[in-house]
């Protein structure tokens, strides 16, 4: 039985975000009734490569996203159709809503109206900026939202001699859909108001506002290409990365330059790699892809082939694991679910519906088995009952795992974050705080941003006593989440079978990079190699250069997909009392949000290509330099403009006072695509004479999607985010108080404040948690003496003893 059997969702959305949200719910077993106007969801006629979809047929992406759903056509001009929709909504558990169809334009089907009229419903709204606030009604595309989020400049993407680069592939739509699905399952009733802007801040920037507040400097002050990143080998492209100092040292040794290793250097890894970029690239050019991958794996250096729609399905790891499946209706190739569970909580995909295929069935029968007065009792578990009292053992580090468990902590779960003094969470160590400063390991705003509301326990699981205590702790926890490399838990004997013996109803989620089996099982996995292997990287960059790694999406995307899997498992456990094993491989989540590349290639033979800051959804779409210098004194200040419709183009032309160059040929999207260079030339000249504020103040009131390309540490001051309270001030015992991002949703029945306590100091809760296990004060002191627990990293202790 799938986890969401008996749960019914009325899908009033159109486009990718809502489509992906309800796909995840349908995969989990929900009955998803997709309500469409007589014209159908615009995705039915969509192809990113420009394939013309014949009338009555559906585009491949729609067929992928609509698997296992039902289609009901509602004509808002017909009373009987509106009554049908009213009855569906009244009998459902949840509604997913976005703008874009004639049905949702009716006032009675607006999100707040639905939530007021039907108190039993969870109504999830997906909009660019949220349902209220000064920007609520502003024009936007995913491209301009990325610019506002700080995600375009966020992690230094792109060479300094060109414009910065957005992350292509409509990535914000998929991320918003994944968050919307998790939010829908987390709430029993009420209005869930999701903002795509806030979603992209969480997933495309790295806690930059918190960083600047706490340390009085930006996370990064300039763009640099990641070295090596994606590089040209003798026979193709290969991706290599260095996420830690040790990996940089190993790379130096691998390419034959041990003399570059300088453990005392004050330069960052990125800065050191840029100094030696040419020599590194030369070494890569002299070797074959296969040899580089094998050698770098031996050195434990993160590596991957660079996948795209044509190649990724043939990679050994995915072929051996059966990662890709056949679309049940149209026969093209698509990725399987983004997580695997035992017992299975997802159902095999069923064919996507034709337009209106189920209209008459629902007109005759409604939603079977539903009585309105019993809905509240049968509805999803409330946020309070689901998470209050839930105990989570969080054996994760860096970004992917902690971002998943952090949502649970913000929604009321007790989350115990396990570290060790020998290997603290890596985000404690990457803030660039000198080790000469007192408690330098406690000063990372990145760790702080990911771990509020949690408890910290240190355990050295290299010792038998540490493993013994870990096992005792497992017995007390409902959920165990880990993202070690697979061999770690195998070595200490704590896989799912072991956990079940300790706690039969425990849910255990493992979050490996590439999976628990297959030839890539033990590959080191950081966000960027996940992006490389899945195809996310392929679409980002300029067409005349190698692809550029987003360097951000792989981790938080894995985290939110893992959360979706956990929510399915919690529902299953509540229903059956059984524990669940979850394998939430980072790359499987990435392949799902990059699915369009494989879908387009296998359905039409078209390989999607990167195109700088242009994209398939708008023309013109690009970044244009303003007249200003950026805050660091460089000519690197930009605005984003994206014209998605002919009406928006007419509005742009009017705002520019009908310039001669905007001739009639440009009135259609086809004409604008043909002459995109011509438009860019004139818009570049117009923007170069104006400040970013002047450009936005001219175009946005006219209805043109436009945005300033924000420095990520400045987004906390955006009026929309201030209005919605997306950032909350959090005190800290070592750092100054800082603004911390929350969740990208406002929940009418949920918490009014998400951050209840600061991120924990290392080992802060050792005595509390171990005392609850029955250890005496003397036993705990003995553990400290042996180094099995502690409150400072081992390297800090060694420095103190030798200093």
UniProtKB/TrEMBL annotation:
Q: Where is this region: Disordered?
A: 326-362
A single GO molecular-function term is:
transferase activity
Short name of one Pfam family for this protein? CoA_transf_3
Output the InterPro entries linked to this UniProt entry: CoA-transferase_III_domain, CoA-Trfase_fam_III, CoA-Trfase_III_dom3_sf, CoA-Trfase_III_dom_1_sf
Q: Does the keyword Oxidoreductase apply?
A: no
Recorded hits in PANTHER family, A to Z, give: SUCCINATE--HYDROXYMETHYLGLUTARATE COA-TRANSFERASE
Q: What is this protein called?
A: CoA transferase
Q: Where is the composition biased (Pro residues)?
A: 335-352
Q: Which UniProt keywords apply?
A: Transferase
Give the SUPFAM superfamilies listed for this entry: CoA-transferase family III (CaiB/BaiF)
